[in-house]
Amino acid sequence: MKDLILNEIIKNGIFITNQLLDEDEKNSLKKDFLNKKNKELFKIDKEEQIKKISETLFNFLQQDSIKDFLRDYFGSETKCTNVLFSRAVPEMKIDDSEQIKKGNVFGFHNDDSGKQIKINILLNDLDEKSNGLEYAATSHKISKLDKFLISVLKNFGLYKNWDKHLINYQKNKIQGKKVNFMSEKEIKKKFKIIKVHGKSGLIYIFDTNGFHRQGSVETENLTNYKRELITLYYNKK
Ligand SMILES: [Fe+2]
After folding, report:
1. Is the pTM of this model over 0.90?
2. Do the beta carbons of residue 146 and residue 165 sit within 8 Å?
3. CATH architecture group of domain 2-236
4. In this predicted model, what pLDDT tens digit does every residue of 90-141 receive, in sequence order?
5. From ligand 1's centre to the CA of 34, what distance in Å?
6. Taking the domains of the chain in order of start, what are their residue ranges?
7. Which residues place a Cβ less than 5 A from the ion ligand 1?
């Protein structure tokens, strides 16, 4: 399983599976989820702290396939920095340029924090047309031109720890736009979009350097559903 996760994320930036959680774990996580407020965020210093938030969650994260994948992907030891519990209500689709102006999660963006992995555990069934994550496959990879420019700048002692997109960032900056966004039109021209949907217990893991957004809906009758999610953030130690 570890190699499956690692290879998919190296290739596309995202891995989706319904094979990691069993029924008991899912039910137990759901129980723990009910005790949390919407958008309740826990800052994590030591991974043991997760035990207090949810023992099932802590135990789930100890499996080799996850630990080994994280270490191999980052090429060093990693740490969980945040655990977020969220219930996201779908919103009706509005003009893409408006989303980007607002700089919100409904426009394609990267998290602007360099290499970062998010592990998401879905706790309700999610329709394909609802507000699942849309991920631009392969967009986590920094382009050859970006890499070349970064290496030149590094020779001058600049952009030392820069490990994210450069041209898109600088282009947006000059134009006075949100630096870490890209228009839907440009994204769809360059990348294939993977939309996350499926049954409760689905797990999806992605590199937040890739462009992604929360899907918005085109019909009112999907706006009653909430997307229940536990999200874990992982960064280099
Ligand atoms: Fe994001």
Report:
1. yes
2. yes
3. Sandwich (2.60)
4. 888 888 888 888 888 999 999 988 889 999 999 999 999 999 999 999 999 9
5. 24
6. 2-236
7. 111
